[in-house]
């Protein structure tokens, strides 16, 4: 027992060994801190400080005087800026609108991504690679490019989609009322579906194949396997 | 189509800049510390602009004026005004920068400009009264006018003939002509008003002689509901009520097809748009004609204009030299001749009193049928810009507020009069909240 607890008898007397266990711990902490320092400094300077500054500014207001084109001064106004925002009906209706829209759009997008991932999981590996890359393209297209592309696709005057629709004799528009939200949702889904599909697909790949075999032996068909095995056991991508 | 006041793309950065300014300007309280007297010796001034052809002109100036060297910076980009604000607050601002009239008032109200009234006074006579108003919000001069874009009308002469109407002399004529076109073809409109762009109302109010903002001694009189303002509002209301205007959005890349294909047959336009007619109206080339903008009062014809200015920023150590350069750039024959030449691609139209030497070069003659004197129309427009219009200290914020309500107006959910009444209250409240003295006018 004593041989186990006693430090091994090695001749070198490095400072590390001489220090007490407690001091060694604090020393380790210091080293750790040293390693974390570059990140910590960056984090403080570009994240914590600006947020703190923004918060302190949010308690202040700029005041002018006279005709408003002279010098300005900044006064402390407490939480009055917050009060006026929270009392603004537009703020609440836009928040609600955003929440509702996100709830619908994210649900649809994840549902489609899951469906695609399950389909991919069932086909041969070579085809998987092709479809994965193809569906990821919208995600890697720079936002500037996709913005311009959708501007033209949705343009009330120049859209090729509308042109086709009109030739087919229908009178659809992309904007106005519910259509605005559908158009917007379509765009976001187009952009996000590939990335989400990759995440889900990766977690499906990681599932042990034995599970499927067991399910098959029990007589489950592909849809049953997907529903009862794949979806519940691949939670990694759901959060 | 009077999209000259503000272009949608500018609005996002503008809103962002407005909110950012609250953040950034807070630690630099005092502004506009009176700059010292006449500069002696050699100096170098920084100048931000994003107008084509300006850089070449600064080189010409630099060659002739070794004592005042201009360091040109091309600040093109959606965030130019944001960058400028940040630079002022960081103390690294240029001495001069391009800005439009609305932003000049906005910057001045936020204490980001230098009062150059004393140095600039001697250049005043070269420019039109309306142009000088644009650089002197509240009576204090913060810059030098650069260019103007007076409004006039362009119309499809072929289609006017087809529908049996004449170029409207007054806004009431325009309404009558629009109704006549509607009787013949429901799908053809005489005018366009985009749901995101309330500039039509601004232009009409300016032309009707309204003063949304007016200085009266030590305070502002805010008047969105004066008889003149309501007269302008009434025309807009009639355009909406009778479905006389199309609703093509300027965010739509194909917006110009509306006119090129003849769905809308007239527009309010201006000098800055003349150079792009070629590209935008390939099918209707040679079928256009220019006319004076419709007026409210034949006896006192007025139009409106957007102004491009050169602002002198806070922290500029040599405002006298800055004003001297800016005035040279935008008022001397040497500089204006070069800038208005189509080679420079500046799209600039001068803000000086006599524009006649510069008009001919900017007219794309192949666009017009040659039956009206385009040069005369442009010169007339430049000479009759209403001199009463002023930008108040919260004009930019008011404009965003108006934009919110404008969409409802074009959708017939809100009347113009109700919008004007609510803007009146909003503007007075907002000014008072900022500590600025303001009262409602009516």
UniProtKB/TrEMBL annotation, chain B:
Record's signal peptide: 1-28
Xref: Gene3D superfamilies: Periplasmic binding protein-like II
Transmembrane stretches, start-end: none
Keyword Signal part of the UniProt annotation: yes
Keyword list, A-Z: Signal
Highest taxon above the source species: Bacteria
InterPro entries with a match to the protein in the record: Bact_solute-bd_prot1, SBP
Keyword Signal: yes
Pfam families referenced in this protein's UniProt entry, alphabetically: SBP_bac_1
PROSITE patterns from the UniProt entry: PROKAR_LIPOPROTEIN
Protein's name according to its UniProt entry: ABC transporter substrate-binding protein
Species assigned in the record: Streptomyces caeruleatus
């Amino acid at each position: 027992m004593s041989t186990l607890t006693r430090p091994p008898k090695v001749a070198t007397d490095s400072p590390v060994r001489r220090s007490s266990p407690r001091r060694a711990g604090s020393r380790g902490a210091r080293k750790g801190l040293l390693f974390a320092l570059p990140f910590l400094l960056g984090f403080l300077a570009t994240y914590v400080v600006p947020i703190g500054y923004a918060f302190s500014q949010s308690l202040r207001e700029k005041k002018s005087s006279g005709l408003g084109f002279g010098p300005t001064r900044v006064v402390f106004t407490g939480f009055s800026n917050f009060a006026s925002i929270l009392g603004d009906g537009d703020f609440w209706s836009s928040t609600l609108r955003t929440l509702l829209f996100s709830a619908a759009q994210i649900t649809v997008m994840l549902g489609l991504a899951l469906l695609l991932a399950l389909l991919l999981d069932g086909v041969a590996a070579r085809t998987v690679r092709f479809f994965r890359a193809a569906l990821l393209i919208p995600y890697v297209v720079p936002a500037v490019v996709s913005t311009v592309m959708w501007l033209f696709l949705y343009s009330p005057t120049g859209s090729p989609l509308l042109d086709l629709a009109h030739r087919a004799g229908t009178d659809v528009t992309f904007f106005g009322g519910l259509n605005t939200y559908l158009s917007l949702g379509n765009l976001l889904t187009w952009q996000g579906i590939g990335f989400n599909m990759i995440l889900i697909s990766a977690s499906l790949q990681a599932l042990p194949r034995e599970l499927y075999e067991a399910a098959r032996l029990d007589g489950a068909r592909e849809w049953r396997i997907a529903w009862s095995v794949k979806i519940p056991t691949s939670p990694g991508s759901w959060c | 189509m009077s999209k000259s006041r503000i272009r949608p793309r500018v609005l996002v950065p503008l809103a962002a800049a407005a909110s950012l300014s609250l953040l950034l300007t807070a630690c630099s309280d005092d502004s506009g510390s009176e700059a010292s007297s006449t500069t002696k010796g050699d100096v170098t001034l920084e100048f931000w602009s994003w107008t084509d052809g300006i850089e070449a002109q600064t080189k010409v100036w630099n060659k002739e004026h070794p004592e005042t060297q201009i360091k040109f910076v091309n600040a093109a980009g959606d965030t130019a005004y944001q960058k400028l604000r940040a630079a002022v607050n960081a103390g690294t601002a240029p001495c001069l920068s391009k800005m439009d009239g609305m932003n000049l008032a906005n910057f001045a109200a936020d204490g980001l400009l230098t009062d150059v009234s004393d140095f600039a006074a001697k250049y005043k006579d070269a420019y039109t009264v309306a142009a000088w108003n644009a650089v002197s919000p509240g009576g204090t001069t913060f810059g030098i006018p650069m260019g103007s874009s007076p409004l006039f009308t362009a119309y499809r002469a072929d289609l006017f003939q087809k529908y049996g109407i004449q170029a409207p002399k007054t806004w009431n004529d325009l309404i009558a002509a629009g109704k006549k076109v509607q009787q013949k073809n429901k799908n053809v409109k005489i005018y366009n008003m985009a749901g995101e762009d309330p500039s039509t109302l601004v232009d009409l109010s300016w032309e009707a002689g309204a003063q949304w903002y007016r200085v009266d001694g030590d305070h502002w009189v805010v008047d969105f509901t004066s008889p003149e303002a309501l007269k302008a509002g009434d025309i807009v209301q009639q355009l909406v009520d009778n479905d006389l205007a199309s609703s093509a959005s300027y965010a739509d890349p194909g917006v110009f097809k509306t006119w090129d294909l003849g769905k809308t047959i007239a527009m309010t336009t201006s000098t800055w748009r003349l150079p792009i007619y070629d590209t935008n109206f390939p099918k209707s080339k040679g079928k256009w004609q220019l006319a004076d903008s419709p007026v409210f009062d034949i006896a006192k014809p007025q139009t409106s204009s957007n102004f491009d200015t050169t602002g002198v920023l806070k922290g500029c150590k040599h405002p006298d030299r800055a004003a001297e350069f800016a005035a040279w750039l935008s008022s001397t024959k040497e500089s204006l001749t070069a800038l208005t030449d189509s080679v420079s691609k500046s799209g600039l139209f001068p803000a000086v009193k006599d524009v006649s030497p510069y008009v001919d070069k900017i007219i794309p003659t192949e666009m017009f049928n040659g039956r009206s004197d385009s040069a005369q129309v442009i010169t007339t427009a430049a000479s009759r810009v209403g001199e009463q219009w002023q930008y108040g200290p919260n004009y930019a914020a008011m404009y965003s507020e108006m934009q919110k309500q404008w969409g409802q107006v074009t959708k017939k959910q809100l009347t113009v009069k109700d919008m004007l009444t609510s803007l009146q209250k909003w503007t007075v409240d907002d000014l008072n909240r900022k500590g600025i003295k303001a009262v409602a006018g009516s």
